Predict the structure.
Amino acid sequence: MSGNLSRSEYTDPVAILHKAARDGADVVVKDVLQRMSITERSTALETKTKDGDQFTTPLIIAAHNGNLVSVKMLLRYKADMEARGTVKVDEEVIVGCTPLWAAAKKGHLDIVKILIERNADVNGRTSSNSTPLRAAAYSGNFDIVRCLVENGADVNARNKPREHTPLMIACYNGHSKVVTCLIESGVNIDLQDKEGNTALHEAIYKDHFEIVRELVSLGAPQLPNIQLLTPLLLANNNCKIDMVEYFIKRPECTKEQRVEGLELLGATIANKGRAYDIEKAFSYMKRAMEERFQDKSCPLLKKQREPLEVYQYRKESQTLEELVRLEGDDHAIHMEGLIIR
């Protein structure tokens, strides 16, 4: 940010120091600090100045804006590395962030390194429990993620209120190098957030197929979220056809999971606006039914359910013969999909 000093601020050393640190006016920072008494300097370094939506100490704003020389000078005069302030990043106001968090979020690796060298808390949290590692993982700053991990950052730290881990948010945003780095650091890929979603769910939501492959190859589990959607069922429910085909061809995918997945995919395609394709929907339903009766001596039968008025008292097809009778009847296939879902 930039701005003009008011008339009173021209003679206020605290305001002058904050503006110089904010704007990277390193000569001014040095001059003001040298002219102050020890008491004045201590006050100036600790004082938070409001600047728009931001409310920071000189060190926080210098770190936030990537002003390395100013950061070094402020540290030389014992600026508090664990002071908390408020900064604005991409239109979002972040409360309770440290200088390290601010630098990590904005991608200032050199400042992150010098703060860590001075023993800044690598797990210093904001008011929403976000750590510097989560901030860097969210933005995809690989070098900063690696630096923080190598210096003891908690790779499984959760934020509030959703309880996301750095891995979850990196998967959601598709930062594959960050994901790999976190996995190699020993992150727990089985953790679930407040909605029951794992990192694998997050990658599926945003269609990051390569990340899905990496997580699955490392044994990421098919845990259900609070909506009872496993990663496979989530892929079906969101019409991620390539992902569904990938999951059902995995050796660990059971026949029951495969059948349920194909049925849900067909049912979703028969009922979802953008993906709507009645012929394709029927083909997946038929494929699932054929799989049910592949072993005639031990078919995988559907559970009988009472017909409901909301579905026009229709019954779900129980055999391939019953299902085939629906072929060509778009409305009947649509209703079959609703009952399956």
Q: What stands out?
A: The longest helix spans residues 255-269. The chain has 19 helices and four strands. Strands lie at 49-51, 54-56, 85-89, 92-97. The radius of gyration is 28 Å.
